[in-house]
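General statements about sequence and structure are easier to judge against a single worked case. For one protein, we set the task of working out the structure tokens from the amino acid sequence alone. The sequence in question and its structure tokens are set out directly beneath this paragraph.
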Amino acid sequence: MSLDPIPLDALTSSRSTIAESIHEELRRAILELRLQPGTKISEAEIARRLGVSRQPVREAFARLGRSGYLRIQPQRATEVVRISTREVMNAHFIREALEVATARRAALESPPGMAERLGACLARQEAAQEADDRTSFQREDDAFHFAIAKEAGCGFAWRLIDEQKAQMDRVRFLSLAFGQPAALSDHRAIVAALRTGDPDAAEAAMRGHLARIVGVVERLRQDFAHYFQDSDA
């Protein structure tokens, strides 16, 4: 397991700041499969690795448990939750409903400079792809979708989506081994549709892009069966 020590400036800040830093580091480690599904972890071990006390680790664990990344059971080891196909598809349902609506509204609103701002997002994602920097690629992927919500005046919708997609994010990260070109191509198609101001085209482009998750899950369940919950087979 690879975890980075918490920066000194965080350690000299408040306990809540330390807990936030720990939460983000653990969330990234789980998302990027450095902490793999099914891994058992302890507060004491994580505190030792990060060079912090156990209390902020406990707070970070509790938050990750609420988000669906960790299973915390009294008197038993805390475990990184295996990927639930059911939860991934539940998140897809919510994400499709909200993002198709935001794409449609963005096309109808067509704020000045929207295409250029989204184009800048694409340029950063292209650079991440060229560098095969999957962490940056996924970060820019999220930034692109958030940007569309903001252009539509619906930034709040992305916050709702982000709260629901813990299971989906690990699937997305795994898929970047083969899925970066398709994702980027889809994003270009979405921008092209938004540029025309045609809400039906924008809706179709977004819906088609998000629908890829179904095939991705099936492929990953075959390649990484040990990462998924057996109950969803």
